[in-house]
Every structure is written in structure tokens, then in C-alpha cells.
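agent> Task received from the user: take the single chain below, predict its 3D structure, and emit C-alpha cells. No templates, no multimer pairing.
agent> Plan: (1) validate residues, (2) run structure prediction, (3) serialize to C-alpha cells, (4) report one or two observations.
agent> Step 1 OK, no nonstandard residues flagged.
tool_call: predict_structure(input=
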Amino acid sequence: MPRMLDVSDEVRAEIGDEEADRLLAGDNAPGSYDCTSCRTPGDSEQERTSTVLFIGDETAVLAFAHATCLPSQVVQVTEEQLQGAVRSINGDSAPGGGPQKSVPEQAVLGVTSGLVLIAGELHPALVVEPTSPIVRPGTDGVGDDFLPLLIEQGFMPVPELSAVPPVLHGWSVLLAVGQLHAVLQPGPTGGQPVAWWQAHQPLQVTDGWRAAANRHQQVLMFAAPVGSIGRQPREDLLRDAIDKAAANGKLVAAALPLAGV
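)
tool_result: status=success, residues=261
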């Protein structure tokens, strides 16, 4: 059955006309899917749906999003980001060695901003928690390697929020025009930084958060495994959840310099 899919020219150029036409005809496209942006269910038989092609260094994954959430587009990511965020790929490689087509299991990185009080001073913070366990790239194991992978990158385990974590050089937080755009990590060959996490659309932050970031010229990033913190509606509840994750040994952190203002 034909799908209500939007396939942009840049996506078509990457996957080829034949594969794009198969998608539009409904051959390789799912009916139902989880939107790669808002993570709620969608149905390509009933509503306009965008094809979003994530391209890493060696892997390409086609995901789907509500057209009201994202336009059809190609998104360049690092291979580590792609393999870490997309834990398993359901479906086969496209004929002719094309990119694999699937709806990724939603191992999406959820990012929440808030102010945290440490030693009597407010600091801007980002709290990162995946929506499902992260398995080490290149393995088929079970479990969750999210924190070990970050510790290998230089993040430090935090048993309690009694002091500001050390600066992690090479990583940074990109703010531009007062909005949060990305968390950057060192390039694989020591070149330009690349996005470890990138917002689909720039995230608004509060005036207080932005002022604190400009004052400290850095942002504290806290990370926890799925289910450790959750999306808290208020900063006091967020702090309580962070403290609980720390006490349970499920929190790592670092101070990341600003990459923009």
C-alpha cells in the first residue's frame, strides 16, 4: 500500500531513485513507527511522514518522523554516535549494498537543561539519559554500557553533588543565539570537534540558565542510564533524581566549556 512519505531530494540522492520509489510504494517502509524526533507513534498510511537518513562513517540508517516534527533530510553523525544511539537494526541491507533500512529501536539521548546548586552557587547543567540501554558498538551483548563508554571518554563517576566535576577538555557545549545546539566531542583524528549529541531543533534555555553559562563559561553535563532520572517537570525534582542516581552509583559528570555564546 502506498505510504504518505516525504523523501527529500538529498535523501533520494543518497539512497537512489529505485530505493526511494520502493519506499513510496510501501515496499520497504513500515506502516507504524516511532517518530525519531518526538518518540511517539506514527502511521505512514494515515499521516505525512518524513524519511530521515542518519549517515555515519560506515553505516547509514533510515528512520521515520512525523512530517510536523521534522522535514525529510540527511543527518551526518559520527559512527560511534550512530552505533550507540541505534542499538539494533531490524531489516536487511538494501539490494546493491545500499544503506540498511529500519525503524531504529529508540535508544535516543534525552537531554534536559536545568540549574543545579553546588557549594552554594548555581551552575547550568545538562542531564543526559538514553531512552533504552546502550550496548557497546560492535557487540551483540546485553546490558547497558552507557556509563562505561562515557568513563572511557573522561567523564567521572559522581557519588554525590558536593563539588563541581573537573573540566573535560576537548568536549564542549555549543550555544548559539541563546539556544542549545549540540554537545561536541573531539574529532576522531584530532581535527574539528564533531557532534556527540545534536538537537533536531535548537533547544530553548531559560534566561537564568544562559546567564549562568555565560558567567561560568562552562556547562555541567550529568549522564545516567535509562530509567535512572526520567524527565522531571521541575528543577527541584530534577535535582532529587540526580542525587538519587549519584547515591546509587549511576551518575557520571564533567564540566564542558562553552563552544559559543
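agent> Step 4: summary for the user.
Residues 109-257 form one domain.
agent> Done.
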